[in-house]
Amino acid sequence: MTTTATTTTAPGADARALGLAHYAARGVLEHVLARHAVTFQQQVALRAAVTADAPQTSDDLVTQVRGSLKTGPDDIRATFDELLAKQLLVADGAHLRPTDAGRALIAAVGAETGPISARIWGGIPAEDLAAAGRVLALVTERANAELAELTA
After folding, report:
1. What is the mean pLDDT of residues 112-133?
2. pLDDT score at 11
3. Using the 8-state DSSP alphabet, how is residue 94 labeled?
4. 10 Å Cβ neighbour count for 63?
5. pTM of this prediction exceeds 0.90
6. Cα gap 118→42, rounded to integer Å
7. Closest CA to 143 of 11, 12, 10, 18
8. CA-wise closest residue to 49 among 6, 92, 9
9. Which residues, other chains included, contact 95 with Cβ-Cβ below 8 Å and sequence gap of 6+?
10. Largest pairwise CA distance in the chain
11. How many angstroms separate the first and last alpha carbons of the chain?
């Protein structure tokens, strides 16, 4: 009896693979966010305010969120307006501050997504995660440079 060894090779990393991974993970997050009646964009904007070391002006937060979402300032300001209406952010003079409800929401989403993330990322060898992290950082840097050229 002859046995044949079969080997499987991992697909190469490319824009499609990155996109599929992003949208799969984002789909999980958006499912959790829907239970809290917030959108992905609202969560990104609120997280920026919650995790800031000091109170941020609207302009400061726009810059920070724009770096994450790659969308225009008007869209981001509309998202801030939605968060203000939901009382997850509050205007305090020139600053936007998260409310206790906003902080609680970010904590609740983190508590719900933590175990899911552990299942998704669990068991991946540390050296693979380190290599993926390096590649993703480089892809992000290059894509940001290309976007800057396109929008200059």
Report:
1. 96
2. 75
3. T
4. 14
5. no
6. 24
7. 18
8. 92
9. 55, 56, 57
10. 80
11. 66
**57 - beta bridge partners?**
95
DSSP annotation of 91: E
3-class secondary structure, 93:
coil
Model confidence pLDDT, tens digit, residues 15-44: 999 999 999 999 999 999 999 999 999 999
Instruction: Decide: helix, strand or coil at residue 56.
Output: strand
- Please identify which residue in the block is written with the tokens 């904590």: 107
Cβ density class 64-86: b for 16+ within 10 Å, e for less = bbeeebeeeeeebbebbebbeeb
pLDDT tens for residues 40-70?
A: 999 999 999 999 999 999 999 999 999 999 9
42's tokens: 């609202």
Give me the amino acid identity at 18.
L
CA angle, 115 as apex, 8 and 16 as ends, to 5°?
A: 40
**Residue listed under structure tokens 């609202």:** 42
List helix spans (H) across 36-125.
Answer: 40-51, 58-69, 73-85, 100-121
Written as six digits, the tokens of 134 are 């390096």
